[in-house]
Design goal:
Blueprint (H helix, E strand, L loop, with lengths): L1 H6 L8 E2 L3 E6 L5 E5 L2 H11 L4 H15 L10 H26 L3 H5 L5 H9 L8 H11 L5 E2 L3 H14 L10 E7 L2 E7 L4 E3 L3 E3 L3 H8 L7 H9 L5 E9 L13 E11 L2 E10 L12 E9 L1 H7 L3 H22 L7 E7 L1 H8 L17 H4 L12 E3 L9 H19 L10
Parallel strand pairs: 2-10, 8-14
Antiparallel strand pairs: 1-4, 2-3, 5-6, 6-7, 9-12, 9-13, 10-11, 11-12
The structure holds flavin-adenine dinucleotide (FAD).
The site of flavin-adenine dinucleotide (FAD) has 21 residues, from β9, α13 and α15.
Length: about 425
């Protein structure tokens, strides 16, 4: 969200674009549905698309309208506007508390089942996954409507670069390619780390922004947990594994409207990919960001849910693993051909990542790309974020996607901000946001 990035000083100088469409769906009968960012337009589109589902659609739209009032101000919002927005948010929580609880406790799968139209049923259960709490879809559309959810030109890399340069300018040191294998504790106090090459590094505080499971159960050998932490790692569902195909094509897609999360079209026949049957293909055309491909060409991504265990087992045989990725690349190009005839001769590059890839590069547990899903069971932890320390261990802190369900870039950045605020409090220092 733009305000978040602005608050941590990363938005300035960066172009954010706000898109009119969240996504587009096309079914087998050639019906076309657009989920618009503007709530009034979205309501009209859904009602036109399936008048028989009017009661459920109206309920959904009223949920979005309820969330529109929760437009969190950033520290850069002018004081009077900020006071007004905060007052509206607090009164909104008081007035709508019960309704929000109800939405929070409803899964996307349960809500989807109430539609009679098959495409709406499919869309609502697939958009973020069946187990996801629907409240957070309402908030997504509210942010889109408020133009507080944009796309930063250049994607996430300029964000990482901005974080890096800000940290270096504050005299920080970064050591890349230096994995930590253990956290050193003395008398239940974290005092440093042991690197993978055996080197010991002592420090005044240890903060882990790495994978939560590795940090708690490997680097600290599971010595500092309680029932709540055990329950999180035992029962909370992770975001599903992902097959991520990055495809570069020598063509443009002027006829396809730009959208936040792309388009989804029905396949002629269901196909099997890595043990899962799929009947539609979600694709994202980066025709809104010219920095993603040379002029006249376009970057496309295809993201498919997959099982971690399938890829973990397969990756034990490197040759078989690479052959499977290659075969999936070819299969995806053939499937794209159904919607964009001629595209197979325009493909210039293709790169496939799997949960094994994400695990290798980020160390994230089971190769998940975003940590835990927000479900009706754990959604309370989003409203009241988890403590960023571990029971019985002093001098140790955590931030990143493993301190609250939902993960994602905003959680990562805002949890770090929250942590530094509490560390300042410990040190009796005033926390102050400064801008580069
Ligand atoms: C394909 C894809 C699409 C996504 N799309 C979105 C999106 O649209 N919106 C969104 O908000 N989020 C999205 N995400 C999720 C988002 O990228 C993550 O939730 C976010 O990056 C998590 O940030 P983090 O800092 O907690 O963890 P990470 O980004 O995983 O960073 C952890 C860091 O710790 C390092 N590390 C791990 N182990 C060790 C160790 N032992 N020693 C030292 N360092 C270690 C890793 O190398 C890594 O640099 C997407 C992710 C993927 C893969």
């Amino acid at each position: 969200m733009h305000d978040y990035w602005e608050e941590v000083g990363l938005a300035r100088g960066r172009e954010f674009i706000y898109m009119d469409e969240f996504c587009q769906y096309e079914d087998k009968d050639g019906r076309h549905l657009v989920l618009y960012s503007d709530v009034d337009r979205l309501e009209r589109e859904l009602l036109d698309f399936s008048p028989a589902d009017a009661p459920v659609i109206r309920e959904f739209i009223s949920g979005i309208r309820m969330c529109i009032g929760f437009d969190q101000p950033s520290v850069r919002t002018p004081l009077l506007t900020r006071i007004g927005k905060n007052a509206r948010m607090i009164s909104g929580f008081v007035i709508n508390g019960k309704k929000m609880q109800k939405w929070m406790k409803t899964s996307c799968g349960d809500f989807a089942a109430r539609f009679s139209d098959p495409l709406l049923r499919q869309l609502f259960s697939e958009m973020w996954g069946e187990k996801f709490s629907i409240l957070f879809i309402l908030f997504t559309f509210a942010y889109l409507h408020n133009k507080n959810a944009g796309y930063p030109i250049g994607g996430s890399m300029p964000m990482s670069k901005a974080l890096e340069s800000r940290y270096l300018s504050l005299a920080g040191t970064i050591r890349y390619k230096t994995p930590v294998s253990r956290i050193i504790t003395e008398g239940d106090k974290a005092v440093g780390v042991i690197l993978a090459d055996g080197t010991e590094r002592r420090c005044s505080r240890v903060i882990s922004a790495a994978d939560g499971y590795t940090t708690i159960f490997k680097m600290l050998e599971g010595k500092y947990i309680d029932d709540r932490i055990r329950n999180m790692y035992d029962t909370w569902p992770l975001f599903p594994g992902l097959i991520y195909a990055g495809i570069g094509v020598n063509r443009t897609f002027g006829e396809i409207h730009r959208s936040v999360s792309g388009m989804n079209f029905a396949l002629r026949e269901p196909v099997e990919i890595a043990g899962k049957t799929i009947s539609n293909l979600p694709i994202h055309l980066f025709n809104h960001d010219s920095s993603m491909a040379p002029e006249g060409k376009t970057a496309i991504t295809v993201l498919l849910n997959t099982e971690y265990e399938y890829w973990k087992n397969l990756s034990a045989d490197r040759k078989a693993y690479l052959a499977k990725k290659d075969a999936i690349g070819k299969q995806l190009i053939m499937l794209l051909e159904e919607r964009f005839p001629g595209i197979s001769s325009q493909v210039e590059m293709i790169d496939i990542a799997t949960p094994a890839t994400f695990e290798r590069y980020t160390g994230n547990w089971k190769g998940t790309f975003e940590g835990w899903q927000i479900t009706p069971e754990n959604s309370g932890s989003v409203m009241k974020p988890l403590v960023q320390t571990l029971p019985g261990l002093s001098n140790f802190y955590m931030c990143g996607q493993w301190v609250e369900p939902g993960g994602g870039l905003p959680t990562g950045v805002m949890s770090a901000r929250r942590l530094f605020k509490s560390i300042c409090k410990e040190d009796r220092k005033k926390f102050k946001t400064t801008y580069a």
